[in-house]
Design a protein that fits this description.
The structure holds two protein chains of two kinds. By secondary structure, chain A is α/β, with parallel strands linked by helices. Helices cover 32% and strands 28% of the residues of chain A. The chains are: A alpha/beta, B alpha+beta.
């Protein structure tokens, strides 16, 4: 479960990027975070995986209360979250297989458990034929699928996706969306920042709209444009 | 910091792999280590041998106690006993005037033979070695006041000057070595920082998927250690060959004067081990220092 209470984020340069944010996300939910560029979507996402520390307020993810969490606990909190970026953030020197296995090695998973699990997730995203390719040899959509495979390989309870379809054509974006829906159907909470209107309207889920650093709409089964 | 054996094995493999993948960047880092350790190696060999010869020279300083002419054997025996009784005195040996003259004849030529027999102008001498070279001055002063002593010399101002020079060489030597090591740490950590910068994306991904700080540090630390070790190979080789040559050529000259350099074995083995250890420690340290700012959470 994710809980944010009175969260405020003010950058060192004085810009207030987030104000009075209150929300709860239950386990297994699929939530869109929408809003124009500069609205605070990225700040919201970064606060969730503790890349940024809020100026005021509290954030809780499962048993981790960010206000009392020690810095050495941060890696363990992050193991409950899988993150997908618009620019994929794959390691160019590693193959598809290695990129995904890397996420398991890093948390010191026994070697014998790594191979079957990596193959399982790569099959789920439809890349079981491209294990030995390097990221530069893949299309954008394929790279994003590797990045999703990496995000879910450790079976996180929450997947956070920051504009995962932002760099992709509509058809490829649809494929990515279907994968994220499948991830969600397996019980994982998905939080996705996007401004892909078509996607939000076609795959209806809860919608959080942010503007000027404030949450201005929280609607179950919402659409991109407000009902009003 | 605790690391499981299989994880360490993985890190070792990984660090070696990334050293090769970094290509020219690794070559640059290794070269920086090589240049620095070459200087450190040459200077260490030089300094250690200067110290050795200085202490040999220092230990060579002894008090010569000249016995008054016409002193009887009995009186000489008494004087010897008194000298042995002095504080800080290690050994006392006797050289007759004839033996002293023989030494001069041996070194400077047979024309000095004209002074042999009753014409010998030299005195019988007691050579007094002290436990501590610096005690020679005091011992000489005390010996001079004894009966039947014509003169007691310790090389006077020459000895004082020598002690001062040795002190200066040692102090400057240590200072310079420390400075050189500082330069080495700076050079190595800077070069490793560049290789880390080029892999900032990798560190970012590691953090995002939940790697602990020590898990992230290990491969870089090991890579730094490899860099240091590889960088010490050429300096070892150059110092080994160079020192062996110097030892073979200068060894004889110094030996003729009664002084000696450290024999190549085991000296070079210790020096090589020291260079490798300095390289490894500085490389690993440089890596850890350089990556501190990447690990802020």
């Amino acid at each position: 479960m994710i809980q944010m209470k009175n969260v405020m984020m003010k950058y060192d340069n004085g810009v207030v990027a987030m104000k009075d944010l209150n929300l709860t996300v239950d386990p297994g939910e699929f939530v869109y975070v929408i809003g124009p560029s500069g609205a605070g979507k990225s700040t919201f996402i970064k606060l969730l995986y503790h890349e940024l520390t809020p100026t005021a307020g509290s954030i809780k993810i499962n048993n981790f209360d960010f206000n009392v969490m020690k810095s050495k606990e941060v890696p363990f909190m992050r193991r409950q979250i899988g993150i997908v970026f618009q620019d994929f953030k794959l390691l160019p020197r590693l193959t598809v297989y290695e990129n995904v296995a890397y996420a398991m090695q890093v948390i010191e998973t026994p070697e014998k458990e790594i191979r079957p699990r990596v193959l399982e997730v790569l099959k789920m995203v439809g890349l079981e034929q491209k294990l030995r390719r390097f990221p530069s040899e893949l299309s954008g959509g394929e790279q994003q699928r590797v990045s999703i495979a990496r995000a879910i390989v450790n079976k996180p309870q929450v997947v956070i996706a920051d504009e995962p379809t932002g760099n992709l054509d509509p058809e490829t974006a649809e494929g990515i969306m279907e994968i994220l829906d499948r991830v969600n159907q397996s019980g994982t909470t998905v939080i996705m920042a996007t401004h892909n209107q078509q996607m939000v309207d076609a795959h209806t889920h809860r919608v959080l709209e942010i503007a000027g650093g404030r949450l201005i709409r929280d609607e179950k089964e919402g659409s991109y444009g407000s009902e009003a | 910091m605790v690391v499981k054996p299989n994880v360490l094995k993985h890190h070792l493999k990984d660090s070696w792999k990334s050293l090769r993948r970094n290509g020219w960047m690794s070559v640059a880092a290794v070269s920086a280590v090589t240049v620095t350790l070459l200087l450190v190696g040459i200077f260490m060999a030089l300094l250690l041998n200067v110290n050795r010869i200085s202490s040999q020279v220092e230990n060579d300083v002894r008090v010569r106690v000249y016995v008054e002419r016409g002193t009887t054997k009995k009186q000489e025996a008494k004087l010897e006993k008194e000298l042995k009784g002095l504080d800080q005195v290690k050994t006392v040996s006797y050289r007759s005037a004839k033996k002293e003259l023989d030494t001069i004849v041996g070194s400077y030529g047979s024309q000095w033979k004209m002074f042999s027999g009753d014409k010998n102008p030299l005195n019988n001498v007691f050579m007094v070695d002290t436990k501590n070279p610096k005690a020679t001055i005091n011992v000489a002063k005390k010996a001079e006041k004894m009966k039947r002593v014509a003169e007691a010399s310790y090389g006077g101002s020459t000895a004082k000057k020598l002690f001062k020079t040795v002190d200066t060489i040692q102090r400057w030597g240590i200072g310079f070595t420390i400075l050189l090591l500082f330069v080495a740490v700076f050079l190595i950590s800077n070069t490793i920082r560049i290789t880390i910068l080029s892999r900032a994306d990798e560190i970012g991904v590691m953090r995002l998927v939940g790697a602990t700080n020590w898990y992230i540090r290990w491969p870089f630390l090991l890579e730094g250690a490899w860099t240091g070790l590889l960088g010490s190979l050429i300096p070892m080789l150059v110092v080994d060959i160079g020192y062996s040559l110097v030892y073979r050529n200068a060894g004889l000259t110094t030996a003729a004067n009664g002084y000696s350099l450290y024999p190549s074995v085991p000296f070079l083995i210790w020096l090589d081990l020291a260079l490798a250890a300095i390289g490894i420690v500085i490389g690993a340290l440089g890596a850890v220092v350089s990556m501190r700012r990447f690990l802020k959470i």
